[in-house]
Amino acid sequence: MPDALLDLQDLGVQFPDRNRPGGVLKAVDGVSLSVAPGEILGLVGESGSGKTTLGKTLLRLYEPAAGKILLQGKDITHLDEAALRPHRRAMQMVFQDPLSSFNPRQTIHTAIATPLLLHGLCSKAELPARIAAILAEVGLPADFAPRYPHQMSGGQLQRAAIGRSLALEPQLIVADEAVSKLDVSVRAQILNLLRRLQAERNLAMVFITHDLHVARFLCHRIAVMHFGKLLELGPTEQIFENPTHDYTRALIGTLHDLPA
Ligand SMILES: Nc1ncnc2c1ncn2[C@@H]1O[C@H](COP(=O)(O)OP(=O)(O)OP(=O)(O)O)[C@@H](O)[C@H]1O
Ligand SMILES: [Mg+2]
The ABC transporter domain covers which part of the protein (predicted)? Predict the structure, then answer.
């Protein structure tokens, strides 16, 4: 796909097998997929199927054992840290637990200011206005900037985490179970925020979730992982209405019995 923002080709990631001394575990095994600009790709599959490993590897937080990672057509699979730096901005990660992703001794202002200054995106004088704009974009009042993480609710903190990742104006966000720790009502608000950001910024996402309701609500396409392999990938409605694999059918089977 020439217009892909991200293109993974036959990607493989291995770890020493925790259960077999001397053995190798193929946590990700021959995965090929692409993400278009502005596309939300859901990554689903049971625990241990390799979703987080795939997400971290495409961000080059893990070293792939095989295959290629192309970002806007450029091969970043084996770039060293220095060569990778200009590409790091393009892809950011949002984690499940926002509290642990902030330094407890830093205010929200400092947490957002640090990457902005580090990447030379903003002068010190421009910081307050820039940070207020970022907070507004994620639905937080500007007077949250001097707060510390423990002075905010889980939902507010996840908004701040999303704001911090947006500060570098990425084209892709990897969100790993980013709403699964939140209360149901807060979860809906954060999902709506992600939807709005996708639409307004044409932001692409790899959205990792156990929650198939959430995947169905948010994602354009869904990739099903099983033991490190990509089992099937298709438009969301196709995955839900007409899955190819029995495994996918079983995975979504329970969902059809629940109210939407
Ligand atoms: N750093 C590591 N060292 C060794 N093995 C690992 C490491 N990280 C993950 N694994 C193993 O790789 C496999 C895939 O793990 P991964 O965390 O990617 O799965 P997941 O789909 O994200 O699961 P979950 O839904 O529970 O978050 C698992 O068997 C896991 O035990
Ligand atoms: Mg995981």
Answer: 13-252
Q: Is the pLDDT of residue 254 over 70?
A: no
Q: 3-class SS at 51?
A: helix
Q: Is residue 45 part of a domain?
A: yes
What is the pairing mode between strands 66-71 and 6-16? antiparallel
Residue of the CA atom closest to atom 30 of ligand 1: 48
Three-point CA angle 161, 165, 169, nearest 5°: 150
The angle subtended at Cα 177 by Cα 45 and Cα 80, nearest 5°, is 90
115 with 163: CB under 8 angstroms? no
Q: What is the C-alpha separation between 44 and 9, in angstroms, rounded?
A: 19
Is 24 among the domain residues?
yes
Q: Which domain holds residue 32?
A: 1-90+205-260
| CATH assignment at residue 254 | 3.40.50.300
CA of 178 to the centre of ligand 2 (A): 11
Cα(126) to ligand 2 centroid in Å equals 37
Q: Does any domain span residue 161?
A: no
With vertex at residue 52, the alpha carbon angle to CA 48 and CA 58, rounded to the nearest 5 degrees, is: 135
Number of folded domains that form the chain:
1
SS3 217: helix
pLDDT in tens, 112-146: 999 999 989 999 999 999 999 999 999 999 999 99
* Residue 96 within a domain: no
Query: DSSP labels for 147-171?
Result: --GGGS-HHHHHHHHHHHHHTT--S
Asked if residue 107 has pLDDT above 90, the reply is yes
Neighbours of ion ligand 2 (CB under 5 A): 52
